[in-house]
Input
Amino acid sequence: MSGLARAYSMTSPTILLVEDDADLRDALALNLSDAGFNVLGAETGEEGLEVAWEALIDLVILDLMLPGRTGFEVCKELRSAAKTRNVPIIMLTARADDDDVISGLEIGADDYLKKPLHPRVLLARVKSLLRRAASDAQAPDGRIEIGELKINFERREVLVKGQQVALTRTEFGLLHSLATRPGRVFTRREIVGAVHGEDYPVTDRSVDVQVVGLRKKLGEIGARIETIRGIGYRFSDSE
Output
């Protein structure tokens, strides 16, 4: 097992970094450690899962193309276990194919970054996800019902026609933001601000990818998330 943790602090968030490229893993671990995070490293999917089961992890950075058990498989296992079900996951991909990105988001990743990575962008993503996770844990109760769609903010539960729909943190935040004010047009930047925070570095394309994944999960209800060409999105307030 690759132990990349530096001066371990009980009060600092612990990040699990699963990456088979040793040079990249060391470089990312150094940047994260210098930013005040505890870093635990693994070079294979099997090692990553071992660390996740043994340690208390606050966030996972997961390469999709790993030897042996792939990042997709690791992500599924992390999402299926009670201990790690709500732990934010950032997936890393060297592929330019959006289908891979959407697949990763659909199986439970919260965010993604394409290689080559800029350390400052990764740090911003990590900090944003951790802030959002802390905010969600303290959020008050809130329920929304629009037709056959029901959203329970406190329980982070979404029902469509009485059937529960499993969403990632980002997808849930996106849906909740749009459905809270149906009929209102949100620019992509407003969506990013509501879901991730104003200082979150993101492209318009990444917002579009998240919306595509969310629509697919919602089925027929997903069609109510309307694209406003050149502007952003809105949740339709009409049946």
Summary: The longest strand covers residues 14-18.
